[in-house]
Amino acid sequence: MQLDANAYRILISCFVLWAKYYCAELLFRVFQNLYRMKKTPSLTGSYYFQGYQGTFIVGCPDSDKNYKYLLFHAAGRWLSGRLDYAQVPSGERVPLTFRRGYVWTQGPHAETINLERIEKLQEKADPERNQN
Fold first, then answer.
1. Per its UniProt entry, which superkingdom is the organism in (predicted)?
2. Tens digit of each residue's pLDDT, the chain (132 residues)
3. Which residue from 5, 10, 14, 121 lies 20 to 30 Å from 29 (Cα-Cα)?
4. Cα 99 off chain centre by
5. Helices and strands per DSSP (H, E), number in the chain
6. CA angle 106, 39, 122 (to 5 degrees)
7. Nearest Cα to 130, choosing from 52, 68, 61?
8. DSSP letters along 3-50, please?
């Protein structure tokens, strides 16, 4: 399984934006309220993120054909730095594997405060939400 280049841009940009404005780590369940993961029809095992309410992170290129030459492989149980993986609350875990056809459903994954934070960030001007 691999994510396309824009998926990485979106993921990293969301984490940076959240940390910049809220001095907190963006939780996976909060990210799930912004984007859903979809299979790329033309590439087996490739996925991308599609926004639920339009584009949250802007400025991603329409096409980036050379990204595949820069891929690397990462595997294993990801730790949060503070706990053993088994001790990480299930709502904060990133799935270790994805089965064929894996999708996640939109909220109610996030607490009300985080949903309000998402709304405030969506009001930010495009230059503040640009992936660059």
1. Eukaryota
2. 678 888 989 999 999 999 999 999 888 888 888 888 888 887 777 888 988 877 888 888 886 666 666 666 555 555 555 556 677 676 666 666 655 555 565 555 678 888 888 888 888 888 888 887
3. 5
4. 18
5. 3, 3
6. 40
7. 61
8. E-HHHHHHHHHHHHHHHHHHSSPPPHHHHTTTEEEEE-TTSTTEEEEE
Give the C-alpha separation, 91 to 86, whole Å: 12
Residue 5 in contact with residue 12, Cβ under 8 Å? no
| Cis peptide, bond prior to residue 127, ω within 30 of zero | no
Q: How far is 31 from 44, CA to CA, in rounded Å?
A: 24
Give the pTM.
0.64
